[in-house]
Amino acid sequence: MKTSDLFVKALENEGVEYIFGIPGEENLDFLDSMQGSSIKLILTRHEQGAGFMAATYGRLTGKPGVCLATLGPGATNFVTPAAYAQLGGMPMMMITGQKPIKASKQGQFQIVDVVNMMRPITKFTKQIVHGNTTASTVREAFRLAMEERPGAVHIELPEDIAAEDADELVYKVTTTRRPDADSHAIESAVEMIKKAKMPLLLIGAGANRKRSSKALLAFIEKTGIPFFNTQMGKGVIDERHQAYLGTAALSDHDFLHCAVERADLIINVGHDVIEKPPFFMKESGQDVIHVNFSPAQIDAVYFPQLDVVGDIATSVNRLSDALSPQDNWDFDYFYRVKEEVKVRISKYSDDERFPLLPQSAVHVIREELDEDGIVTLDNGVYKVWFARNYPCYQNNSLLLDNALATMGAGLPSAMLAKLINPDRKVISVCGDGGFMMNSQEMETAVRLGLDMVVIILNDSAYGMIKWKQEGMGFNNFGLDYQNPDFVKYAESYGATGHRPTSHADFKATLAKALDSKGVHLIDLAVDYSLNHAILNEGLKEKICIV
Question: CB atoms < 10 A from the CB of 346, how many?
Answer without folding.
Answer: 12
